[in-house]
Write a structure and sequence with these properties.
Length: about 400
């Protein structure tokens, strides 16, 4: 892969709206990605291996629990800082951002928000430091967009719960130490349980042959009569709203992350367009190529403003689930379209691993699917503005 010459676009001087702390945190994450992610990520993706060597670096830049209070090992930052860290990581690779999203918003967040003090103290510091890695089990083989239909269940056996079922498409599952698993009790109510590697009957087979998110490990969570200690049930929230609350936090991070992938594609295409000569002049001088670049920077700028405003609302605890859903949908759709256009601008070189664009493009096929598909998010906005549910 070519050296990482990335320069972040900021067409509307959005940096002026950030604090000095935001910029320091963003720049530290950006420098780490250039130094530790860019040189290894293409090979990791080609080999379809999650590069475990980057886990300590992710912890160091505050990517594990950016907004979790410092008393639990988190970085105690605001929501805009969290977003900026996700943007920079996904500029490197969506799969690396996935690992951080799952750890922070889908594992640490529910333990922090729905767990008790013993659970917070036991798990959060080790998850923040990367000593333990987590996964989040909501999706099942027959229940993806409709998690309410899940069949994974647990029974009260007096001194423990007995858990049975299976989860599919689970990021980090092959190497996770703990999994936050959503399952129904005997009354059909959804609860979160913390399942630990080593519990008898718990296995995590890897899913192979993915063309997307290849540098992220994806797999199953299988539970065959797993005895889960009663103290591992998250006591403070139940029902579908509990896992969906975690998704709000992760979807928000993705809305920022997608901007990173888009910026990398745009920056690569812009540089290439000035260097590549055809018909005696740089391809960037042709009107059709300029149209592509002009539309890319316009869409990136709109996405940056959407994410920043959403971050302000989140900092004030005013962001609605529907607003978060809109930003996830819009920004991922923006990024995947930019990746497709940028790839074309590089001609044949665009399909090689010399440049990051094709990897971003393939990764974004997962990002537009997970955490709610593009169409599910359209229907969430539809429900919000009409009051009529297309799901029931
Ligand atoms: P519905 O009846 O609308 O709601 C059930 C209860 O949940 C509440 N609620 C929410 N709470 C918090 N945050 C949200 N975003 C919420 N949305 C709904 C709602 O108020 C209600 O509460 P209550 O107290 O009245 O019971 O539920 P529904 O069954 O009609 O489904 C709605 C729908 C389709 C929007 C939802 O099921 C959905 O979002 N489906 C998409 C599934 C999804 O996103 N799965 C993601 C799996 S995790 C993942 O992909 C990780 S990838 C990680 C990575 O690698 O980065
Ligand atoms: P389906 O729900 O079967 O949907 C298939 C198609 O039908 C989609 O186009 C969808 O939009 C459409 N559709 C469905 N319902 C409707 C409707 N009502 N109206 C209109 N169209 C509809 N899950 C986890 O729990 N944890 C994870 O860590 C995790 N990581 C993932 C990592 C990767 C790489 C991938 C690909 C997925 C991951 N997922 C994870 C699962 C992800 O959330 C689901 O794939 C996603 O929610 C969609 O579910 P599905 O794949 O079963 O598709």
């Amino acid at each position: 892969m070519k050296p990482d010459l990335f320069e972040a676009p900021d067409y509307y001087n959005i940096d002026d709206l950030l604090t000095e702390e935001h910029k320091l945190i963003r720049d530290a994450a950006r420098a780490w990605v250039k130094r530790d992610v860019s040189p290894i990520i293409e090979e990791a993706a080609q080999k379809a291996e999650f590069p475990k060597s980057i886990i300590p670096g992710l912890a160091e830049i505050g990517a594990f629990g950016p907004y979790i209070p410092e008393q639990y090992g988190g970085a105690g930052l605001d929501q805009i800082s969290y977003g900026l860290i996700m943007q920079e990581i996904e500029r490197g690779d969506s799969g690396v951002r996935s690992t951080a999203s799952v750890q922070s918003s889908l594992v640490m967040y529910p333990i922090w928000k729905y767990g008790n003090e013993d659970q917070r103290n036991k798990y959060l510091p080790k998850l923040a430091s990367g000593e333990w890695m987590g996964s989040f089990g909501l999706t099942e083989p027959d229940h993806g967009s409709n998690p309410a239909g899940m069949v994974t269940s647990f029974k009260d056996k007096g001194d423990h719960y007995l858990l049975n079922g299976a989860k599919l498409w689970i990021s980090n599952s092959p190497f996770c130490d703990v999994a936050v698993v959503w399952a129904k009790n005997e009354e059909g109510r959804i609860h979160g349980l913390i399942v630990e590697r080593g519990m008898e009957g718990f296995s995590t087979p890897e899913t192979h042959n993915k063309w997307s998110l290849r540098a992220s490990a994806t797999g199953e969570l299988i539970f065959q009569d797993v005895k889960v200690p009663k103290e591992n049930l998250l006591p403070n929230k139940s029902g579908l709203g509990a896992p969906l609350g975690c998704l709000d936090s992760a979807r928000y991070g993705i809305a920022w992350g997608a901007i990173g992938a888009a910026m990398d594609c745009y920056d690569t295409a812009l540089r290439y367009s000035k260097e590549r000569i055809q018909f005696g002049k740089p391809i960037g001088a042709f009107q059709l190529q300029q149209k592509k670049l002009a539309e890319m920077i316009t869409e990136i700028t709109k996405a940056q403003l959407l994410a920043l405003r959403l971050g302000q609302l989140k900092n004030e605890d005013k962001a609605t689930s529907a607003q978060i859903s809109m930003a996830k949908r819009n920004n991922v759709d923006m990024a995947i379209k930019i990746a497709r256009e940028a790839r074309q601008m590089l001609g044949g070189m665009g399909i090689t691993g010399e440049y990051p664009i094709m990897r971003h493009m393939m990764n974004l096929e997962s990002v537009i699917t997970y955490e709610g598909t593009h169409d599910i998010h359209l229907l969430i906005t539809g429900l919000d503005i009409t009051g009529l549910s297309a799901f029931k």
